[in-house]
Amino acid sequence: MLRIFRKNKNKPGAVQDVQLRPAEQSGLDPLEQRLEDTRRQLGKRLGALLTGRSSIDEDLLDEIETTLITSDIGVQAALEIVENLRAGISNRVITEPKQVLPAVQAELFELIEPCEQFLAVDEGKKPFVIFMVGVNGAGKTTTIGKLAQRFKEDGLSVMLAAGDTFRAAAVEQLKSWGERNDIPVVAQNTGADSAAVIFDALQSAKARNIDVLIADTAGRLHTQHNLMEELKKINRVMGRIDPEAPHETMLVVDAGTGQNAVNQAREFNQAVGLTGITITKLDGTARGGVLFGIAHELGIPIRFIGVGEAAKDLRPFDAGSFVNAILPID
Ligand SMILES: Nc1nc2c(ncn2[C@@H]2O[C@H](COP(=O)(O)OP(=O)(O)OP(=O)(O)O)[C@@H](O)[C@H]2O)c(=O)[nH]1
Ligand SMILES: [Mg+2]
Q1: What does pTM read for this prediction?
Q2: Burial profile 287-316: b = 16 or more Cβ within 10 angstroms, e = fewer
Q3: What is the pLDDT of residues 256-303, one digit of tens each?
Q4: Which residues surround the ion ligand 2 when the cut-off is CB under 5 Å?
Q5: Per the structure, how many domains does the chain have?
Q6: Of 5, 6, 57, 247, which is the most buried if we count CB atoms within 10 A?
Q7: Do 260 and 177 fall into the same domain?
């Protein structure tokens, strides 16, 4: 069981200790190990601010605020958290330094818990279409491979659409994931129209009664207007076959881009209306705090986190495990 502090909504600063059942855990490396850099950046620095302290003062709150801001949580979210701590102190709910970390943990958990919404494939939609978007190198194609394997293991039939027609290597990359897992990949030549490839794939998936179709797209910057328009076109074209498709529009962002990940999420959301986000490469960055920035500003469901290159390293986002891994309370 996982222990986490939750806010007591009626009393600023007050927390209660609750037990949660983590979503998925057996046989995997503990998340703390994979998120070690972020834990050092956030949890350890906050812990160090409080060690050996006998009282709480305004300097401490300032230092907490700085630590949160420099951990990519975002200025607004950091200010709100510290404001809530201040309210707890002035109410005399928080009177001792040892109450501060549990209160911060409870604030972080409260902020991000609404984004814990697992991606449920609706088997009534055949195929359930997942449309993957994001900037270059964010981890889209790798995430598709990992997702495909996960769905297959769950007993679903999967098809992939090689909608990244910019680079020959992109099609090869997808095909090799497909071959490894015995999953069909619909592709055309480099330079083909991405919307046409995805249209064909959707038609074929429908004809073959496939459960899940995952469409890859070329990486693009949210500032490239024409390329963002192309995503809208792909959406329209899919709509001709199934007005409800795509059922999930998932942004893939690299956690290491820090605050820029929040900008990407905002812009892609404006262009194509995101229904989910996957945040990759949390294993190689200290900037995992950005999940809170995304949660605070956009509130879009965080479906998965990538904590390594292997398929098992794509984990469903579990708010309690995440917060506990980066800010453990002894
Ligand atoms: N360590 C680590 N590496 C990852 C993770 N996710 C993806 N990668 C690596 O990131 C690199 C880029 O991944 P791709 O999947 O090719 O990214 P992409 O978004 O498809 O890139 P483009 O198609 O060029 O836009 C690859 O070397 C992946 O192995 C992760 O969670 N952790
Ligand atoms: Mg790719």
Answers
A1: 0.95
A2: bbbbbbbbbbbbebbbbbbbbbeebebbbb
A3: 999 999 999 999 999 999 999 999 999 999 999 999 999 999 999 999
A4: 140-141
A5: 2
A6: 5
A7: yes
